[in-house]
UniProtKB/TrEMBL annotation:
<keyword id="KW-0521">NADP</keyword>
<dbReference type="InterPro" id="IPR015896">
    <property type="entry name" value="4pyrrol_synth_GluRdtase_dimer"/>
</dbReference>
<feature type="domain" description="Quinate/shikimate 5-dehydrogenase/glutamyl-tRNA reductase">
    <location>
        <begin position="171"/>
        <end position="306"/>
    </location>
</feature>
<feature type="binding site">
    <location>
        <begin position="49"/>
        <end position="52"/>
    </location>
    <ligand>
        <name>substrate</name>
    </ligand>
</feature>
<dbReference type="Pfam" id="PF01488">
    <property type="entry name" value="Shikimate_DH"/>
</dbReference>
<comment type="pathway">
    <text>Porphyrin-containing compound metabolism; protoporphyrin-IX biosynthesis; 5-aminolevulinate from L-glutamyl-tRNA(Glu): step 1/2.</text>
</comment>
<dbReference type="InterPro" id="IPR015895">
    <property type="entry name" value="4pyrrol_synth_GluRdtase_N"/>
</dbReference>
<feature type="site" description="Important for activity">
    <location>
        <position position="99"/>
    </location>
</feature>
<dbReference type="InterPro" id="IPR006151">
    <property type="entry name" value="Shikm_DH/Glu-tRNA_Rdtase"/>
</dbReference>
<feature type="domain" description="Glutamyl-tRNA reductase N-terminal">
    <location>
        <begin position="6"/>
        <end position="156"/>
    </location>
</feature>
<keyword id="KW-0560">Oxidoreductase</keyword>
<feature type="binding site">
    <location>
        <begin position="114"/>
        <end position="116"/>
    </location>
    <ligand>
        <name>substrate</name>
    </ligand>
</feature>
<dbReference type="GO" id="GO:0050661">
    <property type="term" value="F:NADP binding"/>
</dbReference>
<dbReference type="Pfam" id="PF05201">
    <property type="entry name" value="GlutR_N"/>
</dbReference>
<feature type="binding site">
    <location>
        <position position="120"/>
    </location>
    <ligand>
        <name>substrate</name>
    </ligand>
</feature>
<comment type="subunit">
    <text>Homodimer.</text>
</comment>
<comment type="function">
    <text>Catalyzes the NADPH-dependent reduction of glutamyl-tRNA(Glu) to glutamate 1-semialdehyde (GSA).</text>
</comment>
Amino acid sequence: MLIAVIGVNHRTAPLDVREKLSFPEYGISAWLKKLQSSPGIEGCAILSTCNRTEIYIAPMELDTGMSSVWSFLSEKSGLDISEIKNYTFCHTLYDAIRHLFRVVSGLDSMILGETQILGQVKRTYELALEAGTTNVVLNTLFQQAITTGKRVRTETGIDQNPVSIPYAAVELAKQNLGSLEGRSVLVVGAGEMSEITAVNLVANGVSSVIVSNRSYDRAVQLAEKFNGTAVKFDQLFDYMAKSDIVISSTAARHYVIKPREVEKVMALRGWKDIMMIDIAVPRDIDPEVGKLPGVTLYDVDSLQNVVDANLAERRKAAVVAEGIIEEELDEFMKWLSTRFVVPTITALKKMAEEIKQRELHRAFNRLGELNEREKKIISSLASSIVNQLLHTPVIKLKQYALTPEGHLYTEILQNLFNLQVEGQRPQAEIPPPEKKQKRTVS
């Protein structure tokens, strides 16, 4: 049984192509069953996220299975197969397994070490199980991939250091304010980064969101997303006094939050700590504000410095993660090789035993009356010859099984001896070479 993956991701294709090749979860069961019914496909699973679509298959016949996937993707997207091939990558066996292990560990993501992909791979496996399109090989592959993803995160902490400005802001807020449970945030302006940061703050326990914007209608729209409160711009500092965190991202060309106003705010707060995050360029908050007692101020550059430092830590963790992946890959390959080798060795020994018994029976008939001792000696001789002939091929096959090309040696042996291996399709017969006609010289 082989393993292959054909996929497209943020590095190989533009968004419009990825959109055409994506599979929404609500209809994926039907697509899975359709793919499994295609020629050469024994099992399949589809990983589809905003940045990637990957088709994992367990084919008996690699070329046939791959052709089925190309046709399947062409039907789904409306694109020609030749065009799809321009945007996709293809891995088989060893490389396909390593690719999935790297994906689930966050090493192939747009954001190195991101956590979300682990849950997405879990969901991919669950959907394939529910659709009934997995088999023993894919089940074991995805189970070990998920285990690998968890192990990488536990042993390396690769996902512990935030590498985006919104996430960095949340982590810094936790460090400065402790728990965010029950805290309040004031969003000044309606910039995209402010909104994303607010989303992450709310996800981490912030309970109250206040939005102030020069366009009050826009403030209302943004506040509704958080079940928050919209306030007019001239009320900004009144509500700042009630907030623990301030996020600012306006389009102003000058400072909108200055030391004089913030000093009054801090006095009203009794100088209780407040955190300010200025994501605007040019800056909204005068840097002098950060010098006031109780005020912690971060701007885009300071947040980016945190992100860069954290990314460097993730890169170090990624080196360790690659080592873990190689260990898990070796374990899986040993298991997979056993599935290739053991049935083939069993079939080879069975064939040899049948030949031995047949030839012994023929020899005994020709020799006439033999006593039991004579029969035993001849049988022992036949067994010894068979065992010695098979010893080296069997040992070598077990050794080759642990290499990336192990399955090829197994298939060659099956073809050479025309073995009928239980649980596998009969090997296609190779036609004899055509005889060359003798040329006559006139």
